[in-house]
Fold each of these.
Amino acid sequence: MNLPKRHHYVPEMLQKNFIDDEAKLWTFDSRNSAKGVWWSSHENLFLEGHHYSHINTDGTKDPTLEIWFSELEGEAAPVVQKIIAAARRGRCPNLTKNERQTWDFFFYQQWRRVPDLFASLMTAEQHRDEVERLIDELERSGRRLSNQERSNLLDPTTLKRMRSNVRVASLKTGNENVLAVIGARGLVVGRIDNLRKSFVLGSRPVVKLTLPGLTDLSDTRVEAWLPIASDVIVGVGLYDRAEILVPFNTKQTRNQNEATSKQSSQIIGRSKALVESLAPYVGTKVQFKPVVTLGTVGD
């Protein structure tokens, strides 16, 4: 059995909705800024080898989570296309109950599954500090570790495996409260009103917009948006409207693109000029420190 090795943390089925007329994508990666803006394909962007695999102590890998995400993407793909098609006709998608539940779950998972978010929650250095703290706590409880045992636990290869497994384990669990809030709020679909403009997609694609001191997603003044095509974006809406369609003007589109770029280490888009104009913003607000996780509604 050939196990999947190339794990896309932003699905190809989303990336394909941002390709140019030659089926390519323009991209900029702040971690390799010297390369500038370059042309690539959705097969080779927003992916890491075995990103969702649990790594066993013998080095073997269990890709169960990647397979599960692939199945979710397969279920979500027709819902995404239904939303896009309706928006381009100037209509709400009129999702069924099952389609809406699929969308909500896909949106929630896409929010939390990307490396940029996890890196902001726990850097490699912070993980090592936490392991050392737990070792010290274990020894204080009476279990003395030999120098070799301590060395083995703090070996860089071991730490990398443990940190990866923490990420995978966290993604296997969810928070029903967050999903309940997303489901309770309506769906808002945005369509760019200037066909010469377009959205970019980021390595951390869900953008949460808040007012100072206000982060609770149950408050309708808190917004969360995910671009699903170069001209269509979807967010959490109002409690008293199941679905609404709104226009995105040039300023709103630019603000969304800048917000995406700032929180993402990499962006892709159909326009070279657009990606070049956003390159100075990319990764400028990537925060590598603990923040409130998606385990609460206030994330």
Amino acid sequence: MNTSRESVLARIRTALADVPTAEEPPLRRDYLPAHLPQDRPAMLDVLAEHLADYRAHVHRCTPAGVPAVIARLLREHGSTSVAVPADLPPDWLAAVTGVAVATDGPALTTSRLETTDTALTGCALAIAETGTVVLDAGPAQGRRILTLVPDHHICVVHADQVVASLPRALPLLDPTRPQTWISGPSATSDIELDRVEGVHGPRRLDVVLIG
């Protein structure tokens, strides 16, 4: 017995049976790929503003200032442990003292991550118009679980990783990779719209924006 879906599709095929292929209208994709100025400083400003709207904490600095900012954020959060990808740039932790570092790998289980205060990673790219940071388990990011279990996530974003819009971002991403799209700390609301943070991921997101 045919389902309703199959019946509808059959009627569409019948209705289009005598329409020559040449008459099929081409798909139009003449929409604007971005609505922001394409200069880098403007995109960084918009990204920082939108991340802040989503209750992320944005810290702008120069490349040389990254180690000091990371050390300060760990100290302010009271972190005694931090989980990092195996290929994390070593200078990012150069100013960190008194914090146990757990390197991502098979030995870093979910149970261990549950007792880890902070995750420190890079990202694949960031989208200015939506205030979104995208991770895809690429360089300086580690496994997806690394940033979902600890209560605190520090994410370092380089200026050249920032794109203006979603249409600019999608061609740069590999759809076969495990992606995590982050706009602020994890949050959910119940039926009465009471916001609760930290249910599905980090309760606090610090973005170190270089540039």
Amino acid sequence: MTWTISGRYVAGCSCAVLCSCPYDGQPRDAKGGTECLGTAVFHVAEGNLDEVDLSGVDFAFYNHFPSNLTSGNWKVGLVVDSAASDAQAGALESILSGREGGPFGQLSQFYGEYLGMERAKVSLGSGDGDGCTVEGRTELSYEPLTGPDGSATKIKNAMFGFAPEFEVGTTSGRSDAFGLSYEASYGETADYVFSSEELEGATQGRA
């Protein structure tokens, strides 16, 4: 089976700025904790799994990283927007769980526990500062970090990333889903393209 999804994402987590997960460092929050709890909310502008059209669907991917990413034993869970059809939700679960191969198939080698899929209203703002919301679970506001020239700070060619280059910033808000509760601190956003046809190693991915 072949699949592709593309669009935009906003992610927030408990790590103090900057999050060390993209370069496989030990997570650390503002209180000295050494775990990363986070949420990445995606809007699928275009996508499909074989004949299932995924265009227009929003979903949230939750993570618990107990240490640096390559140490594994991740906990991950998925919330698909309640407006999506059962076929769309099932297709996204197959992709995000790693069963359909591609970049999430690569990432699934690090999964210790898949927490399952739930349904709720998921929404992603259209611009900086809009953040993302998962009804009854997560509400995050995002603001970019900026450099001396006023443009957004970006990270490029990270070991783990949802895009080859992504903007970094701060998030505020709180999340509590799948028993994973955290106060947001770090944030990032970018346009993304994932596909089952990606060359192995081209995108490691990050949740």
